[in-house]
Write a structure and sequence with these properties.
By secondary structure, the chain is α/β, with parallel strands linked by helices. Helices cover 23% and strands 14% of the residues. The protein is built from 5 helices and 5 strands, in the order H-E-H-H-E-E-H-E-H-E.
Amino acid sequence: MSEPKSLMQLVGLPPAPGRFGDSALILIDCQREYTEGALVLDHIAAAVAEALRVLERAREKGAPVFHIDHHGPAGSPIFATEGPLVAIVPELAPRADEAVVVKALPNAFAGTGLAEKIRATGREEIIVVGFMTHMCVSTSVRAALEPGFRATVVAGVSPGSRADPAPRAGARASPPIPWRDRIQVRSGAGS
């Protein structure tokens, strides 16, 4: 009996992670809301350190870099546009030659022109890091298929969980979803 194949194998996609020579780096929601706001994530310090390592490598290799910044509506309790926690964490601050794309939805491609901006760089692949694996990272990586981008998600930068408050009376608590067991992620982006 033959070994089962992954979806990537069945459709003929290369199994190797993206390389910075062929890819643009997309940093999704690397914002202070996750490091010191209402949505502090488990293991966030390690995620910031790994994101910085990947960002430095992308810069060294000359890869185009896009910082995706989520903005909530005015007065929102999270990602308030007028508040300080909407800012990108200082360690990952964009340089003058790096694009900052503001989004209002989990999908970084929805209504932002991100696909066109990536295409303008001549890149067909993206390497993605971000702080909320099960929400904006997953949504954006899936949406990247529509304009035809091949995506690599760097696992060490996607903590994607936090200690949720206890459920209300009568509500059932949902167990954490093991995303890393359900979507293919790559540890350490290619050179």
